[in-house]
Design brief:
The protein has 398 residues and is α/β, with parallel strands linked by helices. The protein is built from 10 helices and 11 strands. The protein folds into 2 domains: 241 residues, Rossmann fold, CATH 3.40.50; 82 residues, no CATH class. Helix content is 27%, strand content 14%. Helix 4 packs across helix 7. The radius of gyration is 20 Å and the shape is globular.
């Protein structure tokens, strides 16, 4: 989940020093996904980059029904739905929210989720998951995903849907590539650093300088909700993984360690309020979306700050933009009950302030009782967000 509330696990291995050669061919064939039927995953090879050294692929996830069936001779295969959504995940996150896909499918949109290089499914065995020094390195896999969606599967309309860091990724892409998508829908986008003005100015300058000298340095955020030191939590990690009842996964597909006794809920109030291990509603794979989260490093944060400054200068997005977020933010010391009704990761006020720089056609809707990932909000906030999202698409795209 994208934020500056990440905590810092123990020592990480050094990044790979031998660059991978560019992958041959465009894409692989779909294979069964960790979510089980009808979900499939398709590997997208990418070229090696200093922004994510050693990362050589992304993963596109969709249902089998998204693949057009052969038509009579002489006719092009038609997609199940003419329209499609491409979803971009947040930091320390991956796609498992199948009910989001269900809402889009019911609304007449095929659903695709792109796990960006070094992230989520594509980050398994990567030396530092989600540690990407320039989000524009993801342009390669986004372009290929759109080629599959439009060129191979035949969708005429594509909506870019991004959460948190994925929201920042989405608006940068839309600003850089006018005409590539038909609308942008954002779920609590990370458009500004959730810190004081002093930290944002002087702290960002320091991080930028540090990123040039020591990009792998782990950055700690004084505003994050935590009580247990990350090193202590990491010392309790084991390679075992618990079963998941909501999201059946292939254990062989994810070999990242899981913290079996990671300390109290206050260590990571956002994640632990929501996950079933700590009494929450959801049961995602803690190997792919762990708590404490993957560490934030200086190179990553410096890259984020550069893009956030671009947002402030104005992106001029030429398609309709929807920005959804909670009505309230929660800072350090927030209770579990409060954490279930507000965004404990980002500042709602900052999201609202930065949204006006995205383009000329921006709709902002706040969801009462929503959490940072509005899709994970308790009812009725979750239903309100999904209804807002699909209703806005029906209004703007017909």
């Amino acid at each position: 989940m994208a934020s500056t509330t990440e905590t810092t696990p123990g020592q990480q291995p050094d990044p790979p020093t031998t660059p991978l050669s560019p992958a041959a061919g465009r894409t692989s064939q779909p294979v069964p996904d960790i979510l089980g039927e009808p979900w499939v995953a398709r590997t997208i090879p990418v070229t090696d980059s200093p922004a994510a050294p050693g990362a050589d692929h992304a993963v596109l996830v969709h249902q089998r029904g998204a693949i057009p069936t052969p038509e009579p001779k002489g006719q092009s295969p038609a997609p199940r739905h003419a329209r499609a959504v491409l979803y971009l995940h947040g930091r320390n996150d991956y796609f498992f929210q199948t009910w989001l896909a269900d809402a889009f499918l019911t609304a007449g949109y095929e659903f695709y989720a792109l796990e960006l290089r070094a992230c989520g499914r594509a980050g398994v065995d990567y030396w530092s998951p989600h540690d990407v020094r320039d989000l524009r390195v993801h342009d390669e896999e986004i372009a290929e995903a759109l080629h599959i969606i439009r060129g191979e599967h035949g969708h005429s309309t594509v909506v870019l849907n991004g959460h948190s860091t994925g929201g920042l990724q989405a608006v940068i892409w839309a600003g850089d590539h006018p005409g590539s998508v038909d609308a942008v829908a954002l779920n609590s986008p990370w458009l500004q650093l959730n810190s004081s003005g002093l930290v944002r100015s002087y702290g960002s300058a320091f991080v930028d300088l540090l990123s040039r000298r020591d990009p792998d340095r782990v950055i700690d955020n004084p505003n994050e909700n935590k009580e247990l030191e990350p090193a202590e939590a990491a010392s309790k990690a084991t390679p075992s993984r618990g079963p998941s009842t909501d999201c059946p996964h292939d254990d062989a597909a994810t070999a990242l360690p899981v913290v079996t006794d990671p300390g109290p809920i206050e260590v990571d109030i956002y994640t632990r309020t929501l996950h079933r291990r700590w009494g929450g509603e959801w049961d995602w794979d803690l190997a792919l979306k762990p708590s404490p989260s993957f560490p934030v490093r200086a190179g990553f944060l410096a890259g984020i700050r550069r893009l956030q400054r671009e947002v402030r200068h104005g992106l001029g997005i030429d398609v309709p933009v929807l920005v959804c977020c909670s009505t309230a933010s929660g800072g350090p010391g927030v209770s579990r009950e409060e954490a279930l009704r507000c965004d404990t990761v980002l500042s709602v006020d900052q999201i609202l302030e930065r949204s006006r720089f995205l383009g000329e056609d921006v709709t902002v809707v706040q969801i009462p009782g929503g959490v940072h990932d509005l899709v994970l909000s308790p009812l009725p906030a979750r239903e309100e967000y999904l209804a807002t999202l699909t209703g806005w698409l029906a209004e703007r795209l017909g």
